[in-house]
Amino acid sequence: MAASQPLAAETDLEGGFDRIAKGYDFLTQMNPGYRKHLRWSARRLCLPPGARVLDLCCGSGLSTQALLDVYPDLDHVVGLDASAGMLARAARRLPKGKVTLVHGDATDPAAAGVEGPFDGVMMAYGIRNVPDRDACLENILALLRPGGRVAFHEYSVADSVVQKALWNAVCFGVIAPSGIALTGVVDIWEYLRRSVNEFDGVKAFCARLERAGFVGVEERPTDGWQAHILHTFIGRRPAE
Ligand SMILES: C[S@@+](CC[C@H](N)C(=O)[O-])C[C@H]1O[C@@H](n2cnc3c(N)ncnc32)[C@H](O)[C@@H]1O
Prior knowledge:
Blueprint: H1 13-29, H2 34-44, E1 52-56, H3 62-70, E2 76-81, H4 84-93, E3 99-103, E4 118-124, H5 133-143, E5 144-155, H6 161-183, H7 187-198, H8 202-212, E6 215-221, E7 230-236
Parallel strand pairs: 1-2, 1-4, 2-3, 4-5
Antiparallel strand pairs: 5-7, 6-7
Helix pairs in contact: 1-4, 1-6, 2-3, 6-7
């Protein structure tokens, strides 16, 4: 599948997220289930006690907070994001000590200095934004310990005309108008709508994960209006 088009010719994704960083947390509070569903995906990672975890595309830290809420005994979380503005908000939210924040590209976390092995990798609303998804998955696999687990928390509508229509209606009618009103930024909401439409269907993304070498790949639904629009995709690196 072709990667999504960039936000707009004159902008980039990091810049787009920098521009909405201030309003992002307030906007997500208006989304019923945003934080609850992140906790569901964190729980579906099934981390062992004392785990070391990587949160790719951690943004303002809501997914990192979900990991800390679900696993109060985890050892450490590394949160990586390409947007300095989102990371600044994450730094304000998250407890010092248990969390390290890294500015970098999720396609190749090692290039930003992130060192494995990790017991788990969470990527919430991230993989859809990465142009070279296969390279990203290969690099994630390499950062996991044998048996280590992944959870991708992501929108996918390509397999269902009904879900696609619902997604576009909610995006046009609710998400884009609220997002524009709260952030003053227009193009990122159109990018969001389009990138979800263009992302892999559920079957294609599961197949992509298996091709990358993950085993035990499964899709789990969420609930509410986004029940079959927002999914958790889980898998693990084979044990050696
Ligand atoms: C919608 S936010 C999600 C943040 C967080 N995971 C959450 O659940 O609230 C998506 C984040 O992905 C980041 N992002 C997009 N492409 C990226 C890339 N290639 N590398 C690192 N971060 C990226 C953006 O900067 C943004 O902060």
